[in-house]
Amino acid sequence: MTATPEKAAAVETVSLTIDGTEVTVPKGTLIIRAAEEVGIDIPRFCDHPALKPAGACRQCLVDVAAPDREGNVRPFPKPQASCTMTVMEGMVVNTQHTSEAADKAQKGVMELLLINHPLDCPICDKGGECPLQNQAMSNGRTESRFIDVKRVFEKPLALSSEILLDRERCVLCQRCTRFSKEIAGDAFIDLQNRGAMQQIGTFNEDVLNFDGYEPIGVAAEDESGKAFSSYYSGNTVQICPVGALTSAAYRFRSRPFDLVSSPSISEHDSSGSAIRVDHRRGKILRRLADQDMVVNEDWITDKDRFAFAWQNLADRITRPLVRGEDGELHEASWPQALAAAAAGLKAATTGEDAQGAAVLPGARVTLEDAYAYSKFARLALGTHDIDARTRIASDEEQAFLGATVAGSGLGVTFADLEKAPAVLLAGFEAEDEGGVVFLRLRKSLGRQQVFTIAPFLSRGAEKLDATLIPTAPGGEGKALAAVKGSTAASEALKAEGAVIVVGERLAGSPGALTQALALAKRTGAKLVWIPRRAGERAALEAGALPGLLPGGRSVTSASAVQTVADAWGGTLPTGPGRDAAAIVADAAAGKVGALVVGGVTPSDVTGPFAEALERTPFVLSLEVRRGEVAEYADVVLPVAPPSEKAGTFVNWEGRLRGFATAIPTDAMGDHRVLDLLARELGTDLQTGSVADVYAQIAALGSAAKGERPEVPKVETAKVDAKPGASLVLASWHQLVDEGALQEGEPYLAGTGRTAVARIAPATAVAAGIADGVVTVASAHGAIELPVVVTDGMADGVVWVPTKSPGSWVAQELGVEPGALVTVKGGVA
Amino acid sequence: MTYTPETLAQLEADAADIVSRYPVKRSALLPLLHLVQSVDGYVSPDGIAFCATTVELTSAEVSAVATFYTQYKRRPNGEYQVGVCTTALCAIMGGDEIWRQVSEKAGVGHDETTADGKITLERIECNAACDYAPVMMVNWEFFDNMTPDRALRVVDDILEGRDVKPTRGSHKVGTFKETERVLAGFEDGRANEDQGVGDPTLAGLKVAREQGWEEKR
Amino acid sequence: MTDLTPVLSATWDAKESWTLDTYTDHGGYGALKKALGMAPGDLIQAVKDSGLRGRGGAGFPTGMKWGFLPPDDGGPRYLVVNADESEPGTCKDIPFMLSAPHNLIEGVAITSFAIGCNHAFIYLRGEVTHVYRRLLQAVREAYEAGHLGKDIHGSGFDLDVTVHAGAGAYICGEETALLDSLEGRRGQPRLKPPFPAVAGLYARPTVVNNVESVSSVPAIIERGVEWFTAMGTERSKGMGLFSLSGHVERPGQYEAPLGITLRELLDMAGGMRGGKKLKFWTPGGSSTPIFTDEHLDTPLDYESVGAAGSMLGTRALQIFDETTCVVRAVTRWTEFYKHESCGKCTPCREGTYWLTQILKRLEAGRGTGADIQQLLDTCDSILGRSFCALGDGATSSISSAIKYFREEFDAHVEGGCPFDHAASALFAYEPKAIEEAHA
After folding, report:
1. What is the average pLDDT across C332-346?
2. Residue A7 confidence (pLDDT) above 60
3. Is residue A190 within 8 angstroms of chain B, CB to CB?
4. φ, ψ for residue A108 (rounded to 5)?
5. Which of A262, C59, C112, C381 could connect to A662 by a Cys-Cys bridge, CB 3.0–4.6 Å?
6. Alpha carbon C75 to its chain's center
7. Which residue of C7, C129, C339 is in closest CB contact with B141?
8. Between these two residues, C293 and C436, which has the higher pLDDT value?
9. What per-residue confidence (pLDDT) applies to A123?
10. What average pLDDT does range C277-304 have in this prediction?
C-alpha cells in the first residue's frame, strides 16, 4: 500500500533569468510559476494554478525582455502579466524586486484595486489571511489618494444558503466563476452587468433589476430552481483572494489568527481528501481543503468542508452510559461501564444456551478501528458474525472484494482516472457518491470517454459528457455483459489505461460484479471498486466482514486462519459468519444474544433493525452521539470523532490516509475502547494505540496465494422492468442529504438538491403521470415526492434519492434498490 | 414559463430559425435575446429561461450576457426607444441641450419610460453618425442634425400617436418590438424604404464630381 | 493639392445604390468572378502586395493577417467582418453599408475564397436598424443571384454568410471580444495568444477584418495592385474614407488617398464653421491623442500621424473650434470609456471610474490642485497595463489634452468651466440648468 513514484517523461525545458536567477522549467510554464520555482513571489489575485489563466487583475505585471530573431534581448515596451505569459528561452524577467517599472505598475494596480475596496478589514472574515490585505500592506501606498465616491452594494447577497457575497469587497478576479465553470461544471454564478458595475452573481431578478414576478422555470439548475446548488461551492470561498465570498457557517465566527490549524482527512467519503481543521479552544470553526496533488488536489466537497457540526451537537456523549434497573440509561464510570459491557457479552457468548454475539461496526471506521472490531469479534467474542456492510451487500460482493480488492495495495489511482482515455461507471455516481472523484474525471472532459450504466443520466454524468447505458437496478450484470464486440463502450475500454469503476450498489445486482471482472478481462481495462463511505475499504482490509480476515484472507482457508490465529495468539472460530442482513434478520427473530454496534444509523439500514435491537438481550453501542441505537442499548461507550483521535482512513485507491489528533480530548477511538473491553473479557487485543495496530497489520501482510476467496461466478439476473403497475426501485444517496454526519448544518442542507421521483417518459405515460406529487410505495411503506419525467431514462424504473428530505428509502420503503414498488398519484 | 402555447410555439419556431444560422448553438444567444424583446418588449425572466433552455446554459450565464449589452432592457420598454447622443461631439454640438429639453418634455430621465408606455428615454453613446451631429435615434433609426425644436416635435408626435419618420432610413419608425424582430435577424420587407442619402454621406463625392476627380483606373 | 478618390463611395449617389441591380450595373461582382478564376494563394499575395492595412484602426497589414492562417487541416475556418463601428467620431462603415452593402458582400466572398472559408459572419452593431435591413436583403439577393451559397458561379466554392446584430457594446469592436460576443458570450477580450488566426471563432482559424478593409478588396483584385499602390504614401497605400465631423462647414465622408492633410480636407469641406479658429481635433477617433492647429499639415498616414504623437486610427476627424471646452470634451470621452469598459481588468474598470469622477469635479469647479497630477498618474496606471487597448484609448484624450491645454485644466480648478457651452452648439439656445453628466 505504498505509492511508487511515477517516472517522469522527458520534458522539453526552457531556461530563463528571473531577478538575476537562472531557472529551468518545462516549456509552456507561465512566468509566475517559473518565478515560484526560485522562490520569487509575484503578487496576484486572479491567477490560480488550477484554473486557466485570465489576466484580469493585472496585479502580477513584470518587466520582460526576450531575444528577438537575431538573438538580441529586447525589452517589451509594456509590463507583461506574468500569469498569462509563458516562458521563452533566454527571457529576462524582472519582477517588482528588481524592476522599478514592474514595481510601479504593481503599485498602480494596487491603488486602483483599493479605490473601491471598503476599509472593513477589522470586521472582514478574510482579515488576517487576505491576499489583498497582505499585498496592500507590503506593496501599497500608506494613504489613499481617492477622495471621490466609492461603489457601494447592498450586503451581503446570499448566492445560496451557504455562500454569501459582499460585492463591494470583490476584485472581480473571476476565480469563483472560473472554478464553477471549469472545475465543477456548475455555471450557476457568472459575471453580471458591465464595467464598473460588473459583479458576480446568479440570475437574481431583484439584484439585476429585472422586471418580472414568475419564478424561473425550465432553466432552473435543479428541480428546485435553487440558484447555486453545487456540491463544490465552498471551494469558491477558499480561493476568493478577498473577503467577498464567505460561508454562512463561518461568517463572523472567528479571526484566522485565533485559530489553530490541524491537517486531517475527511471522514465523509472514500476519497480520503486532505483537509485542514481550524479550531479554537477545542471547537472546530471551519474546515478547508488541504492541497494534496495525488488525491484531492486543491478541492473538497461541501460535505467535507461544512459538515462537522455533527460531532459537537447536544447529543454528544462523553461518559459511558449503563442502563439501570429503572430501565433508563445513566452515566457511569468507565470501569463500571466496561464491567457491565463485559458481563453482557459474556452472558451472550458462554453457556449452553448462548446465542452468541454479533458485531456491526458500521462503515465510518478507520483502519485501526476496523481491525480492532475484527479482532474483537474473533478473539473476544469467538465469532465471525461481523459485517461493516450495513448496506446493500452480497456474498458475490464479498468474494469479489476478497479475491480482488482486499490487501491488493494501491491499485487504480486518482491519476489513473484522470489519464484514462475511457471510463465505464457501473452502479456508481461519481458526483453523488464519489465527491472529488467526479472532479478528477471532469478534469479530463473532452479527452476522456465516459460511459455510465445507470437508470438515467444524472446531472453529474451529464457534466462528464457521459454516454448513458440505461439500465434498471438489477440489470447491471446483463448491461456489463453486453459491453462486448464492437459496441462503443467495448471499443473504448480496449484503449490502454481505460478504467471500469464499480460502486458498492452493484452488490445488489446478482452477477454484476462477476460480469465486471469478465469485462475487465475481455477489454484489458483496469477495474476499481469505489465505495461511498470512508470506512468501507478499511473494513475490508481489516477483515470486518464475515468471510474475511485481515489482508484478504478467507475464513475458509485453513492456512489463512492459521496465520491469523498464530499472529493473534488465539484460536479462531470456524467460519464463515453471518453477514449484516442475516445478523439483523436473526436478531429480529430473537436469535442473537448480543449485538455490538458501532457507527450505524438505524434509519440507513434496510430490514428490521429496530426490532433486532429491541429483541436482542444485550446491546452494546459504541458511539459519538447518543443516537437511536442508544435507545435500545444496555451499555453505551462513548468514542471519539475523527477530529479527536488519530488514525488511518484507507481510501478507495488503497492509499493509507493517516491523520493525527486535531483536538486532544479524553475521548478514545473505538480501537482503544475495544482494547479495554477485551481486557475486561480476558483477551488482550493489543489495539490500544495506533502504533500497535499498525505494527500488527504490517506484520500480517496480505493473503498468500490460495488464501483468498474464489472470484465470484454468479449468474446474472433478469430484471423485468417495464412500464406498468410495478416499477423497479432505483436509488442512491445524493451527496448533500440527511446523512447523520451532516446533521446540525442547516446552511449546507440548504444547498442540497431537491428530492424528486424520476420516471421515464413512456413509463409516465403508461402511469398517466405528467407532473405533481407521486406516492412511491412498497409493502412496508410509502414516500411522497414531486415527480420529474426524465428523458432518456430506463423504462419501468422509478428513482428516488436514498436519504434526502422526505425520501428516507430504508426507513420508509424498507426495501433495497431493485425491489418492485408502485408509483401512483401525480397529475396527468 | 408563462408563455401561452401559441406564443411558445412561435418562439420555438423562430428560435430554431436563429439557431440554424450558426454552426454552434450558443452563437444564437444575442439574436435570441432580441427575439425575446420582440415578444415581451424586454428581456423578461421568462425570456431568460427560454434562452437558457434553447442554448443549454444556466440562467446565470444568460443573464450574464443579457446584462452586458445596453440594448437589452430589463423592464418593459416604451414603444419607442428615444436615444439622444451625448457622447463628446454630439453633446458639444448641442446634444446636451437637446437631452435637457427632451427629458423635460417627456418628463422622464435616462432609462425611464413615460407613464403611457410610449417612450423610453436613453442617453446613448456614439451611434456612428458623427457627421450628422447632433444625433438622436428612435428605435435605432437615424434622426440627424437635431435641434431642440425638431427633437421635441418627434417626441410630440410619438406621445400623440403620430408616426415618426427618420431622416435617413425607413419611411416610418417601427415599434420597439417590431424593431427587435428585425434585430433578431428577421427581414420585414422594408429594406428598400429610403429617405434619400444625407448630404454629409455624399459630401466628398460631391466635391469629387464637381472637381472632375474621377478615380483613376 | 490631393485629389479625392471615390472608390468605395463611388456609387453612393446612384439610384437605390444598395440594391443588387445598381451594384451590378456599376460593375459589381465582376471582381468576384475574376477572383474565382485565380488561385487563393495569388489573391492573398495580391492583397499583401497592395499594402492594404486594416481600416478598423490598428492598421495591421490585411494580407499578412490572412497569411497567418495555418495550413488547411480540413476543418472549418472563418471570416468575421467587424462591422461594430462604435469608436466615437467614426462614422464611415455605417453609411457605407447603408449605401453599398453589396460591395461588402463581394469583398466577403473574395476574402472567404482566398482564405478557404465557407461560412462568413458580418458582426454589425445592433443600434442601426436600417443598415441591418439592407445587409439582410443584400445577402438574400446575393444568394439568389448565385454570388453566395453552393458552388458559386460554378467554381465549386461554397459560402454561407450570416449577418449578426450585436446588442450595444463598444468593446465588441475589439476583435477577440467580438468573437466572444459572436459566440453568444459577454463581449470581453480574450487572452492572446492564441491569436484568432490560430484559434478564433469556435477555436478555429479565423480572420477578423474591418468592413472597409474587406470592401477594398474587390477593387484591388479588379483593378490591380499597381492601381492601389499608386495611391497613398510609401507605407500607407491606397485610399480610405476620412470622416469629418464637428465644427466644419460641410462635415461628411471624404474618400481620399492616405497622406492627405486636414488642411486639404478642411478646404474641401468649406473650412471651419463660421470661420472660427480650429482648436483641437482627433485624427482617428476618440482613442487617438488629440491634435491641434499645429498639426494641420501632418500627412494623414500611419507613419506621419504616429510620428506626431497620435494614431491614424479610423480617420475619424472630430473637429472642434475655439468655442469648445477641452475639459468638457475629455470628460465626455472618459465617461464613454467608463460606460463601455467591459469590466474584465482592474486598470480599465477602476481607472475609468476614478478618472470620470475627477473630471466631473473639475468641470463642475470642484477640482483640487492635486487633480491634474492624479489624472496623469491614473492614466499612467492604465496605459499599457490594461488587458486590451480600450484602457489605453481611454487615456489618450486626457494625457494629450493636458499636454496641449494644461492651463485650461488649471483654470477649471480655480473657477470652474470658463466656456459658454451654448456657443459651441449648432443652434442657438439659452443655457438653463447645469448639464448633468452621463449616468
Report:
1. 98
2. no
3. yes
4. -65, -45
5. A262
6. 31
7. C129
8. C293
9. 93
10. 98
Among A554, A449, A457, A437, CA closest to A502: A437
Q: Do C164 and B179 touch (CB under 8 A)?
A: no
Which of C6, C89, C431 lies nearest to residue B89, judging by beta carbons? C89
* Grid cell locating C262: 486636414
Beta carbons of A188 and B46 less than 8 Å apart: no
Looking at chain A, the number of H-run helices and the number of E-run strands are 24, 37
ipTM (interface predicted TM): 0.97
Of B43, B58, B68, the CB nearest to A221: B58
Burial tier of C347 (Cβ tally within 10 Å: 0-12, 13-18, 19+):
buried
| Model confidence at A109: pLDDT above 80 | yes
Q: A437 with A271: CB under 8 angstroms? A: yes
For helices C346-363 and A100-115, what crossing angle results, to 10°?
A: 70
State the cell numbers at A229: 446548488
Ranges of H-type helices in C57-145? 62-67, 93-99, 101-115, 129-144
Specify whether the CB–CB gap between A18 and C306 falls below 8 A: no
Distance between CA A625 and CA B113 in Å, rounded? 62
**H-helix or E-strand spanning residue A588:** helix A580-588
Chain B residues in contact with C166 by the CB 8 A cut-off are: 30, 69, 71
CA dihedral A15, A18, A22, A23 (to 10 degrees): -50
| Contact in structure between A345 and A681 (CB atoms under 8 Å) | yes
Give me the helix-helix angle, B5-19 and B45-55, nearest 10°: 50
Contacts of A191 in chain B (CB under 8 A): 64, 68
pLDDT bin (cut points 50, 70, 90) of residue B130 is very high
Please state the pTM of the whole predicted model.
Answer: 0.95
Q: CA of A81: how far to CAs of A93, A709, C356, C386, in Å?
A: 11, 60, 26, 10
Check residue A3 and give its pLDDT: 44
> Hey, which bits of A390-533 come out as E strands?
422-426, 449-454, 467-470, 499-503, 526-530
pLDDT reported for residue A228: 65
Tell me what the mean pLDDT of segment A161-187 comes to. 96
* The three three-digit cell numbers of residue B217, written as one number: 483606373
Residue C78 sits at φ, ψ, to 5 deg, of -125, 150
Burial class from Cβ neighbours inside 10 Å (0-12, 13-18, 19+) for residue A782 reads middle
The mean per-residue pLDDT over the stretch C381-401 comes to 97
Q: What is the structure's pLDDT at C307?
A: 98
Instruction: Determine the 3-state secondary structure of A813 from DSSP.
Output: helix
- Of the candidates B72, B87, B215, the beta carbon closest to that of C10 is on B215
Please give the Cα distance from A687 to A645 (Å, whole number). 14
Distance CA A136, CA A138 (A): 6
Average pLDDT over residues B208-216: 82
Pull the grid cell for residue B31: 439574436
Chain B residue numbers with beta carbons less than 8 Å from the beta carbon of A220 are 49, 59
CA angle (A333 as vertex; A328, A335 as ends), nearest 5: 115
Residue A2's pLDDT is what?
A: 43
What is the structure's pLDDT at A142? 87
Subunits next to A (3 or more Cβ pairs <8 Å) are B, C
How many beta carbons lie within 10 A of that of residue B105, not counting itself? Answer: 16
Mean pLDDT to the nearest integer, A160-174: 95
Residues A740-747 have a mean pLDDT of 95
Is there a contact between A359 and A380 (Cβ–Cβ < 8 Å)?
A: no
Distance CA A657, CA A534 (A): 10
What is the rounded distance in angstroms from the CA atom of residue A644 to the CA atom of residue A638? 12
CB-CB neighbors (< 8 A) of C99 in chain B: 197, 201
CB-CB neighbors (< 8 A) of A188 in chain B = 58, 60
B16's CB contacts (< 8 A; 6+ apart) are none
**With a CB-CB cutoff of 8 Å, which residues 109-128 of chain B face chain A?**
none
